[in-house]
Predict the 3D structure of the following.
Amino acid sequence: MSQVGHTTARALLRRLAVEQAECRVPSLTAAIVRDGRPAWFGGRGRVGDAPPTANTQYRLGSITKSMVAVVVLRLRDEGALELNDPLQAHLPGAPHGHLTIAQLLSHTSGLTAESPTPWWERTPGIPADDLLKRLGPGELKHRPGRRFHYSNVGFALLGELVARLRGTTWLQAVQSEVLAPLGMNDTTARPRAPHATGYAVHPWADVVLAEPEHDADAMSPAGQLWSTPHDLARWAAFLCGDTGGVLCPDTLAEMREPVGVDDGDAWTGGFGLGLQLSRTGGRRLAGHTGSMPGFLATVWADAADGAGVLFMANTTSGLSGSLAVDLLDILEEHEPRLPDEWRPVPADPELLALTGLWHWGPKPYTLRLLPERGLSLEPVGGTGRASRFVPQPDGTWLGLDGYYAGETLRVAADHLDLNTFIFTRDPYDPAAPVPGGVTDWHA
């Protein structure tokens, strides 16, 4: 599974070994993918009498949520629902039916974090109908849309939504629409051999206690699945953009956009549509963490770099919290990615004539021609509103990002009209329609 050099592999394995030894983890596996392919795998500790392998199963915990979310987004892309639909439009009579599907996906619904049952991770689950009956008014903890508040219950509701719209179980939908097409055949609802046993490690002695494992039933969309490092590496590649036809790349990019953040303006962690987000070390990561009794797992993807990382461990708690990012750092240090070779590409002469300097009032901007007939409008000096644009059938241009995302750019002979803002070749061109009439610059 290794495509990195010997020195890199040794450094990665050492970091994994330090984590396993110092954090006292019964067994620990990790893997890296690059450009959609497995690049490295490592395992430490024991599962039974043998080291863990890339085919050893561990519980995924909440990584399950991201796979459920993909089915929900597939339903949206098919036209079966809209993300702003209230839940009750598809689950008539459901409690808290006014909450939108987007709010449930992004953990901004305000619903309680845990189910109104005994500790659901450590007790047998109850059927969905029974759970729905227990979700009274008191389970709404915040005004919907007000803030990020992680909710396992929200994904139980989304699992039921998938089941109703697909006419099957949430699990069968995930298996047929996500896991099977991606070749993730060793990702299952219950453990299969060889699998790790989940353990709690005593805080003051080197002894362990086996943790319970059961079917969470109605809460299972929040954390039921088991998987292997091999399968989770394929999921990391998916999150990096190798969607294998399971999801439109633009939809995956939408899932990675931040909807809620949990630490204010300079956020380092947040949530998109079913995906956790992290900003660390100059990277923007998307993926999910997972925790169930006896297990911890994490998968992150750096889509900009085409690299993904994961780890899986059979311990309830105690990992350092930096392992995944440290592994990416080691890869970057030892084998930094080479930039793609620059090559000239054909340019439409009419588009080429648009490039160069434009002005919004006195402020200079540059318009560049991008591959695939795209345009990029950026302020000179880098301070101000920048956006990319793609052509539309009616001759206008659609903003992709930044302040002008979703807005319309119209190109005239002597000016650009960007959602009523006028850009001209010369500062305040007197011939421009707005502001117009400027005739004299003076000291």
